[in-house]
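It is worth pausing here to work through a concrete case rather than discussing structure prediction in the abstract. The textbook approach is simple: state the sequence, then state the predicted structure, then interpret. We follow exactly that order.
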Amino acid sequence: MNFQQMKSIIEALLFVSGNEGLNAKQLAAVLELDEESVTAAVRDLKRDLAAQGRGIQVVELAGVYQLATLPEHAPYLERLASTPLRSQLSQAALETLSIIAYKQPITRVDIEEIRGVKSDRAIHTLISKELIEEVGRADAVGRPILYGTTKAFLDYFGLGSLKDLPSPDNLDPDALLEEETRMLYDRFEERQLTINDIERQLTEGQHAERKEAETGEQSGAPAADD
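Step two, the predicted structure:
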């Protein structure tokens, strides 16, 4: 493995690790190299991304390396997140959200064991939409992150508390995930609004207010002389 290949592999590893990232020791173990070589490759990768004007960068937080977007791109990312085309959750995100909602607090590994597939991207999507958040660390090797739902999750789905979640009673355990996801999806569809829907509701509300004001003015006006 040459130095360029090492950087390419590190970039891929950081990409799939998502928000959890990887430290030098973890990267070294996967690459079967010493930490000093890995650290040098990460530094060089960071310089490459900056020199090429790429839209992502390598950041280090508490000794953990992550891929992140550039701060100056934040307005465009916020615009993308708020568009109607991005408002729908994918099936993978809904499955992941249903697991977290019903099993929280839960780690990424436990989520993936239930789903049977990697869930990094789905978790990242749910965090970016502020539907889930980190709620602590599990008392296990590596102290993995525990995820739970947010107040925004309750507000969006019109729930007073987690006790108001639809209850999948008398279900076979193998069918539980599918049923939980279906119920959460039904709730999601009920609550889903596009930008056009919101604008239409605002317009209708403004028309109603004007009509009510006009009616009030007419009823309170002095009678005309005969």
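Step three, interpretation. The chain has two domains: 3-70, 82-191. The longest helix spans residues 195-220.
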